[in-house]
Amino acid sequence: MRTKKRTKNNLVLFGGGRAASERDLACSRYFARALVRAGHVVSVGCASGVDAAAIVGCLSIGALPRVFAVFAKSGQGSWRSSATKIVQAAAKAGAAVIWSAGGSARVPFATRLMRRSLAALAGCGLAVFFAPGRGSLQVARAALRAGVPVLLWRVGLPAAPALQVKAQSVIYLGFNFWLYQPGYQPHLF
Fold first, then answer.
1. Rounded-to-integer distance, Cα 47 and Cα 27, Å
2. Percentage helix, strand, coil, to 5, in the chain?
3. Fewest CB within 10 A of the end CB: N or C in the chain?
4. Predicted confidence pLDDT, tens digits, the chain (189 residues)
5. Residue 144: closest CA among 178, 183, 171
6. Cα separation of 41 and 65, whole Å?
């Protein structure tokens, strides 16, 4: 898959699970670096787990991701699974951080998380998820509805999760993914 030819731009949403394994996190860091080296800009949330790994991966090679925080610059509105210190360090390094991207702390937390993720998705030409949980799969469905192709890392996913379209197995930047392309309609018979 040649992302530059198939996507609207080089902006890639990067997300996944908060409780990812060490292997998932190491691969997330590596893949975030590979995306940057391939000419992409990483757009990511603020959670511990895969989001934090992607931020660290980008910063480790001097790349500055776009980070969407569900909390304020002070950390107000964060919770136990927020990567507050990593996001604050990214801001100090010069990353574009959008604070309270999901709304003020008065907005219910689950709503703020989804709004934050949708803000991070805006303008992206591709969405990539490692060790996706329920929330990540909701964002993947939103990406497909918006016409954005989705990659789900296949490790730990022997069968493609059901989204709106049929998945294809692809290798991109050396990683095995399930690819979901908007507009692809499987044969019914």
1. 17
2. 35, 20, 45
3. C
4. 333 344 457 999 999 988 888 999 999 999 999 999 999 999 999 999 999 999 999 999 999 999 999 999 999 999 999 999 999 999 999 999 999 999 998 999 999 999 999 999 999 999 999 999 999 999 999 999 999 999 999 887 778 888 878 899 999 999 999 999 987 554 443
5. 183
6. 6
d(CA 14, CA 132): 11
Model pTM score: 0.90
Residues 6+ apart with CB under 8 A from 169: 154, 176, 177, 178, 179
Question: Can you say how many angstroms the Cα of residue 50 is from the centroid of all Cα atoms in its chain?
Answer: 8
Second CATH level (architecture) for the domain 3-180: 3-Layer(aba) Sandwich (3.40)
CA distance 187 to 165: 11
Distance CA 61, CA 178 (A): 27
CA 182 to chain centre: 17
* Nearest residue to 53 (alpha-carbon basis) of 81, 74, 83: 83
